[in-house]
Amino acid sequence: MPTRGVRGELSEWGARAVAHGSRLPASTAGLLIGVTLALSWVSTSAFGGTASVPPHAFYVPIMIAGLRFGAAGALGASLASTLLAGPMSYAEVASRTPQPLSDWAVRGVFFVLVGQALTAMVGLRTAGLHAELEDLRATRRLWAALDGDRFSLRYQPIVSLRRGGRIVGAEALVRLEEPDGVTVGPDQFVPEAERTGMIRAIGAWVLLEACRQCARWRDEGLLEEGFRLHVNVSPLELDSATFVEQVQVTLRASDLDPGMLCIEITEHAIAQDSERFLDTLHQLHRLGVSLALDDYGTGHAGLGQLQRLPVDVVKIDQSFVTGLDERRDRAVITQHVTSLARSLGLVTIAEGVERAQEAAAVERLGCDLVQGYHFGRPMGADQFTLALAAEGAGARDGATPGAPATAPGAPG
Ligand code: C2E
Ligand code: MG
Ligand code: MG
């Protein structure tokens, strides 16, 4: 992670960029255009008119108008320049014959064309600058959140129906508390974190925090044999040369066995298929970390990919699970995936199970594990600890297992 000094510099740099990005006020721009048009007219006439001096000066107000008011502004200034530049030709021609209309027209066409071309070019550049500015703002915002400890994790239970509904895993899901105190989900900041590369720093924090928490649960004797902590990792992280090392260091620092960690990659991530990406997956696998293919069915991962990649778990996307008990097409797909996964020796997890009927259907179709609001919403570490403890107490008291880990309406 960069030092505070680097972050401070970055913030200042961002602030300066934002200041430069502000536009010229319309009144100032209008005044500038008027003054430069008048100066252009005066200076051109002083030298005998447009036939002896090409009216280049008129391009200045056209450019200012284009910069401030866009294509329409440039067009207005071009027409005004044409009108102003035309009459001067009377005074300049030695023979005192008026300049032909065609000269006026040619000059006007040039003003318009050059004005529009310049505006388009500047517009493209400005759009690029604005995008850079947005990225700077996002980077500052995300650094500030990391600095201010405003990221947090929720844990969602992963449950085995075959083992009577026991919690056999947890998926760590990141949240961000905005400066106004509102907590937002990853859809509000992960895309920009990926675009700016900040996901590497955030992902490193997520991995360390989740591993430490899992080690705490283990030390308190709350975890089932074979419990797995699932952590989502973005393609950018996996494509980094140091990711495997980062995982090793994190596991060592949190004293967690690699076998307890499962890294989730989305189906879209494997589309990149770079050599380093594949190498990273193989190295992680050799370490003993398991890999899950998240949101299976939404991307491009064909069945062949499952065989080719060192994947241990397939998470069937919620879009196939919702209404599974009523939709035959979804049931057919789910059954197909589970039987293929089983033949390849992979574990299947059905995501987004919200109703008891869906849970029964995925179990019937051969899914190994389930995850969804029906069994527990994503919850804070303390609440998850209580759920694990309650389960342990239930097992000791001989209570019927299989009940949802939290009330389905608990906050996520
Ligand atoms: P995901 O990995 O597929 O996570 C499951 C998402 O579905 C979570 O949304 C979870 O809250 C939600 N969910 C779980 N059960 C149900 C259910 O029964 N019904 C419905 N409607 N939704 C359910 P969340 O937490 O908003 O995360 C969204 C996505 O953001 C995740 O999808 C994952 O791709 C990404 N994400 C989350 N945390 C991280 C992270 O630490 N790093 C990275 N790179 N991505 C993350
Ligand atoms: Mg996931
Ligand atoms: Mg998913």
Describe it:
With 412 residues, this protein is α/β, with parallel strands linked by helices. Helix content is 55%, strand content 13%. It contains 15 helices and nine strands. The protein has helices at 4-20, 26-46, 59-85, 89-92, 101-147, 190-196, 199-219, 235-238, 243-254, 275-287, 303-308, 318-321, 328-343, 356-364, 381-397; strands at 151-160, 166-177, 183-184, 228-232, 261-266, 290-296, 313-316, 347-350, 369-370. Strands 1-2-4-5-6-7-8-9 form an eight-stranded mixed β-barrel, surrounded by five helices. Helix 10 (275-287) links the parallel strand 5 and strand 6 (290-296). The radius of gyration is 32 Å and the shape is elongated. It starts with a helix and ends in a 15-residue tail after the last helix. 36% of the residues are buried. It binds ligand C2E and magnesium ion (MG) (2 copies). The site of ligand C2E has 26 residues, from strand 2, helix 7, strand 5 and strand 6.
Topology (elements, then pairings):
Elements: H1 4-20, H2 26-46, H3 59-85, H4 89-92, H5 101-147, E1 151-160, E2 166-177, E3 183-184, H6 190-196, H7 199-219, E4 228-232, H8 235-238, H9 243-254, E5 261-266, H10 275-287, E6 290-296, H11 303-308, E7 313-316, H12 318-321, H13 328-343, E8 347-350, H14 356-364, E9 369-370, H15 381-397
Parallel strand pairs: 2-4, 4-5, 5-6, 6-7, 7-8, 8-9
Antiparallel strand pairs: 1-2, 1-9, 2-3
The structure holds ligand C2E and magnesium ion (2 copies).
Ligand C2E binds next to β2, α7, β5 and β6.
